[in-house]
């Protein structure tokens, strides 16, 4: 992710996902991979320059 990352959100069908700014990386942890399934991850990243200013 870019250095100016302000906010992240994730939707996963299996496991947990989070952004780790210490290593500048998305971490997706899945404990088990059951057969006949396809885990998916959707991510949205907001940059500091694109966030609306709060009044």
UniProtKB/TrEMBL annotation:
InterPro entries attached to this UniProt entry: AP2_Mu_C_sf, MHD
Top-rank lineage group of the source organism: Eukaryota
Pfam families listed in its UniProt record: Adap_comp_sub (PF00928)
Residue span(s) of domain MHD: 2-54
Protein name stated in the entry: Clathrin adaptor complex protein medium subunit isoform 3
UniProt organism field: Buglossoides arvensis (corn gromwell)
Source lineage: Eukaryota, Viridiplantae, Streptophyta, Embryophyta, Tracheophyta
């Amino acid at each position: 992710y870019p250095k100016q990352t302000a906010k992240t959100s994730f939707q996963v069908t299996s496991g947990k996902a989070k952004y780790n700014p210490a290593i500048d990386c998305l971490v997706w942890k899945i404990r088990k991979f059951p057969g006949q399934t396809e885990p998916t991850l959707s991510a949205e990243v907001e940059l500091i320059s694109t966030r609306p200013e709060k009044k």
